[in-house]
Structures are given as structure tokens and as C-alpha cells.
Amino acid sequence: MIHKAIGPVGAEELVAQCLSIHHRLQPVIEDWLGVPVVYTIGRVDGSGDGLFKFDEAFVVDLLKKASLKTPPPRSLGVHAWLTLPSMELLDLSLATSIAFAQKMPEGMGRVMAKYANDVTDIAYKPMLLGDDWLRRIGVLIEF
């Protein structure tokens, strides 16, 4: 289904592309499942030293900088995933990014689809819903 919607995506193309891949797949997953799917931006705790950890001050700071026309940082250090109405998380990129960073080829291309309470070793911490913040800070630009 993913390849049909956005073309063939190799594991190496998923590394550090969580914002883009989940944004592109949100309408595809909604159509496929027939339910609303929430694009979720947040932290991932317990996934390594400082991986995807940010706070409200960071969110506000980037909004302030955007209002001053300061370009956003090249790398945001945030994570995105999709959340289903059942509170299941669908993450198509984190396992691949971690496997790439840790040089573990067996983790490349894995997809996480679980209830938030069933995720072990890491904790997904939603901070923002939807893509409005990305638009306001100048990261998500549509033509």
C-alpha cells in the first residue's frame, strides 16, 4: 500500500524522514482504514541519548523565530508518527532510524504498530497534533 501511494521507499530513505513520510502517508492511511488519523509530533523517551527530546520552550522559541523570519534549523530533533482513533501508534520510520544509527541491519524497514501502552523500551510523548506548527515555523511548505 505504501509503495503504491508514494512509490518505492527504501529503508535508507526513511532515516530521519519521519516528518515527511508520515505527513505524506496520513491521507493514504485514512483512506485505507476509513477512519481519521492524527499526524502527531512529539518526543520519544528512552530511545537513546537525547534522541527526539524537546519541550514546550523549544516549540515556542521556533514560533518566535519564525515571526522574525529566522529560518528554521536544518534538523529539528523532533519525531512524528500517526495516531489512530483506537490510540494505536503507527510509526514507519523510528525503528529504521535507530537501526541505522546503531548499525543494526536487522532493524531496517521495521514498522511499529501498537497501542501506546503496549510499547516497551521507549515511550511516545505526543506534544503537537496536526501539521500547523510545522507550517508556522516554515518547515512544511506546499506549492
From TrEMBL:
Protein name: Uncharacterized protein
Annotated organism of origin: Pelomonas cellulosilytica
